[in-house]
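#struct-help
A.M.: can someone run this one for me? Single chain, 259 residues.
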Amino acid sequence: MADGKEWYLEYEIHRNRPGLLGDVSSLLGMLGINILTINGVDHERRGLLVFTQEDAQMERFLAIVGTIKTIHLTKVRHPTLSDRLAVRHGRYIERDTGDRKTFRFIREEIGLLVDFMAELFKRPEHPLIGIRGMPRVGKSESIIAASVSANKRWIFISSTLIKQTVRTRLSDDERSPDHIYVIDGAVSKHWGTENHWSLIRQIMSRPITKVIEHPDTFVQETEYTLNDFDYILELRNHRNEKITGEDHPLSNDFPWSDF
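D.P.: on it. Structure tokens below:
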């Protein structure tokens, strides 16, 4: 928005009571701070996206809210992508504390995963994204849904989705920086020809958005490492599921098309 700033506010509720949210909303309104979105981000926390015309409005709000004993303000910052998605979906994305580029999702959070990927697809820097997960957990479907949401065309270079495919060339209309190029590392490892890998090398060298399913297998077959990825996404059926067999495609009898 012009001539103003967006902020992300998050507070913990120490003692919930009827009307508490209304008190906070009223305080923001009295200070002329516009609430854009509000939602719970877990059982004890609320998240808000707000808009101020002047920094002094936020300074006054912070001074007053510090006197309210029933809540504790935990975050005040310009909103990140994770903040916006947390407010939209009512939950935060789980992020690996040891590897900050790794984000974890379960199947019931596919909507959150799709929104997250769609926002990454819209970025001008064309990220390299890896996605891990067991067979049939929803990786390819999530990539397609995110592409549609981002208004991008997806191109499968190798895939086991519907028509199992290993590509060796692209048509002229498929060579666009606005496309999302999807590579299944396991399929390429087991059935990729020399021409297929030549195409992959061409794609990897271009400033375009690439999504690699089974990234651990992919790096075994290439000069790339996991450090080259901008984001690693993990999709599980449930929180405790271990992702195993990353290099095993669904079938040893692969009815592939090479075109």
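A.M.: thanks! The chain is about 30% helix and 30% strand.
D.P.: also worth noting: The CA atoms of residues 61 and 196 lie 59 Å apart.
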